[in-house]
Please model this.
Amino acid sequence: MFTGIIKDIGTVNEITPKGETFQLAIKLNNLKNKKIALGDSIAINGTCLTVISLIEQGFKVEAMPETFRRTNLGSLQVGDHVNIEPALAVNDKLDGHFVLGHVDTTAEVTNVVSDQNSVVLSFELEPKYRRYIVEKGSVAIDGVSLTVSGVTDTGFQVSLIPFTLQETILGELKTGNQVNIETDILGKYILDSKVEEYQHD
Model:
């Protein structure tokens, strides 16, 4: 379980590909003094992965084919930055919203526009997942908990304050980039349970 509040920006130190599976070595920055143990769950760009080994100032994780196909992690290159969030501890504050680290799909950045003290990002999202996006609802973009500021015919928009731009990799996004999307789990349960009810009536 995560909250979408990013704790560090890591750097991809090494990539070991093998077909549609791969290992990533991630070097930490602010979290380098935090104890990370083997077997820990950790979210990388919003994708929940398991720490399989420790390296100096960081750790390694392994991704399976499903992760390669559904997320943007397969397109990472050495030197790229990634959002990092350790799993939620029992005594942690619940900021953000409930994020499972189970990425639904990727979305393309279609526009980046400054609006006074904020930056508005527009995304194109495949139709299958648009039903879960509602204005003023929650969405996780590359693991960052955000509020949907607008819904369009092809996707949605979010507005970012300077702090979010500085403390996450979203400040590096450009038109054409692909981001990981996890829609709100509460919305999925509500909508999909209603579909189940209709099918059984």
